[in-house]
Amino acid sequence: MSTEIRANTMLPARREQITLHTADGLELIGELALPESGQPRATLICLHPLPTHGGMMDSHIYRKAAFRLPALADIAVLRFNTRGTASEAGRSQGSFDNGDSERFDVAAALEYAEFNDLPDVWLVGWSFGTDLTLVHGLDPLVEGAVLISPPLRWSTEDDLRAWGDSGKPVHALIPEFDDYLRPQEARERFALIPQAKVTGFDDTKHLWVGTAEAALDAIVGTIAPDVATPLPRTWDGPSETRQVTIVNS
C-alpha cells in the first residue's frame, strides 16, 4: 500500500548522530543519513540559513532531504549545526561569527566526508549557507554547489570569479518573490560564474514554505541527473512519522 510522503514522513535510512571537530577546537552537532543498503551515489553537505534568524540543521528543506533522499535517490545527506547553533539534536559549541570563523565549520564537514570516503561531495547552501559555500567552500573535494535563495550578502565578486575559474558546476535556485535576490538580478550577478545555472521558481519565497519539493527535485536533478525527477510523492514500504521539535538558537 502506498503512503503519501508528507512533511514529517521519514523513509528508511542508516542514520548516525555525528560530531564534527573544527581546527579551532570546537565540537559541532550533526547527523549523517545514508541509503539503507549499498553505497550512496552522491553526498550532500547542507549549510543552513542564518542561525540568528532560526536557521539550523533542521531547517525544513534539509530535514526533508535527510528524511527522503537516502531512500528516494541513494544520496547521503550530512547536515550539522554551525558554531553556536542549536536544534533538537543539540547545540554546537562556540558562537556565531557572521560567517568568518564558520570557515572552520565548513572545513570540518569536508574533512569528515573525506575521512569517511563519502562519494561525490556537493555543498548545498541555503541563504546564509550560500555565503558559506561561496566564500569558504571552494575545496578540491567539492564537486559543485547548489545555492538556495542566495542573498550574496557576504560573498564578493572575487568569490564568484574564483568559482567561475574553478569550472565547478553551480546551480542557483532563485524564488520569484525572494526578499534579497530575485531571478533577473541573480542572472546578472552570477554572470561572473560562466558555468552557473540560474533557475527561477514561480510563486516561491525565500523560505520555500510549501515548495520544498521543488527545491529537492532541483538538487537531485543537479547532483544525480540519472535519478528521475520529480521525485516520487508516495512510498511503498516502511516509513514513520517523525515530529521534530524546532529549537530557537
TrEMBL record:
The keyword Hydrolase applies. SUPFAM superfamilies: alpha/beta-Hydrolases. The keyword Cell wall biogenesis/degradation does not apply. GO terms for molecular function: hydrolase activity. Keywords: Hydrolase. This is Alpha/beta hydrolase. It comes from Saccharopolyspora karakumensis.
